[in-house]
Design a protein that fits this description.
39% of the residues lie in helices and 17% in strands. By secondary structure, it is of the alpha/beta class. The chain has 2 domains: 30 residues, no CATH class; 87 residues, 2-Layer Sandwich (Nucleotidyltransferase, domain 5). A 5-stranded mixed β-sheet has the order 3-2-1-4-5. Strand 2 and strand 3 form a beta hairpin. Helix 2 packs parallel to helix 3. The model has no long low-confidence stretch (mean pLDDT 83).
């Protein structure tokens, strides 16, 4: 029995799962501390969901790129034309002023995106 082909397949599968796992976590590993809520939960991403990160210094980051509001509008408008009911999740840092979050929501709505959710986390458990 030859083991070399089986080892090749196992290494390919292992590398595929590691790479795909890294890509799925890339948008949520930013230094954003989302606010806590009693009903906060671990995020379950919808298929094709766009994650908009609003960092503590008011920078907007989407797919690893820093954007201003006009650039965000352009990107979201192009996506909204292709995909009806496109889901968007806003991960705003708890230290970001509410006005900045409202600006991002307003930009999403101007681009034609209405399926907006907000990332929160459960409060730490008391032991």
């Amino acid at each position: 029995m030859q083991l070399a082909p089986m080892i090749d397949i196992l290494l390919l599968l292992l590398s595929f799962f590691i790479i795909s796992w890294q890509f799925s976590r890339s948008e949520t590993e930013l230094n954003v501390t989302v606010p806590t809520a009693q009903e906060g939960a671990d995020p379950e991403r919808q298929r094709g969901e766009i994650i908009i990160n609003v960092l503590p210094d008011r920078v907007i980051r989407v797919e690893g790129s820093d954007m201003d509001l006009p650039m965000l509008h352009e990107k979201l408008a192009a996506i909204a034309k292709q995909f009806e009911n496109q889901p968007v999740r806003i991960r705003g840092d708890g230290k970001v002023d509410y006005q900045r979050i409202v600006e991002v929501i307003d930009t999403c709505q101007k681009a034609g995106i209405w399926n907006i959710s907000f990332a929160t986390q459960a409060p730490p458990r008391k032991q």
